[in-house]
Amino acid sequence: MPRPPSQSPQFSSVADVSKRLSTAGYLPDAQIATTVFLADRLGKPLLVEGPAGTGKTELAKALATATGSELIRLQCYEGLDEARALYEWNYKKQLLRIQASQGASGDAADWNTVHDDIFGEEFLLSRPLLTAIRRSEPTVLLIDETDKADVEVEGLLLEVLSDFQVTIPELGTITATRRPMVVLTSNATRELSEALKRRCLYLALDYPSAEREREIVLSRVPDLAPGLAEQLVRTVRAMRALELKKSPSISETLDWAQTLLELGLDTLDEPAVRSTLGVVLKHASDQDRAAAELRLN
């Protein structure tokens, strides 16, 4: 079995991870910083699992910024196949080349000659996985919402994450010269295979503590008054404790903070909450429940 390509460590210590991610706009706790450091040092993909809106995708983006890497994203969805994840051939362009070859010779060209001609780099459409493997520059490969893809896609990922190589029958095996940092995210809508999990380090992300979310709000919306940030975080956490169709995400907390700033509000009283509730709650039933249980009526 070929050995996976090497990767130079991007971080010198756990403290270095914390510092550089914070500079990139992502405030990690000790567990996040430690797990990222170990994934980097061990050369392992990082599987980040948790509810929607807890900052999984933002972590991958911050990693790319912190390491000066190109972010390549594979967005998973039901029906995703090899052609959309790895590569496919430009069939229209191949057909035009075949027609041109036939026209030039006046009769049917030799198939072996045409075959070698049309299955070359010129006709290859590289998709995210192949693109990340072929890059020689620093790369962060984000495989987003892995749990939304069909189980068959996991089998495709195993070869890529084990050996960092892709086999194209017409061209041979392409092996990475520089292994990308890989981050997989999952909302835990279905259980991922044990084979896939074995290849990864695992990080469970939940909504942050009140103190950490307040720090996030003040770092991203620095003009917001600390007291108002405190009110905001307390209200959002109260909403998350309700049985809602969609709990407010961290990004929606930030949107709400920016909204209050733009409106010039200095307190989050009931009128302020009622008039801006659509920023954080996107279902009518959720707004009704929040209004009733948080006594906003």
Automatic annotation (TrEMBL):
InterPro entries the record matches: AAA+_ATPase, ATPase_dyneun-rel_AAA, CbbQ/NirQ/NorQ/GpvN, P-loop_NTPase
Pfam families linked to this entry: AAA_5 (PF07728)
SMART domains named among the record's database cross-references: AAA
Domain of life of the native organism: Bacteria
SUPFAM superfamilies with a match to the protein in the record: P-loop containing nucleoside triphosphate hydrolases
GO terms for MF: ATP binding; ATP hydrolysis activity
Domain annotation AAA+ ATPase: ranges: 42-211
Gene3D superfamilies: P-loop containing nucleotide triphosphate hydrolases
Protein name stated in the entry: MoxR-like ATPase
Source organism per UniProt: Blastococcus haudaquaticus
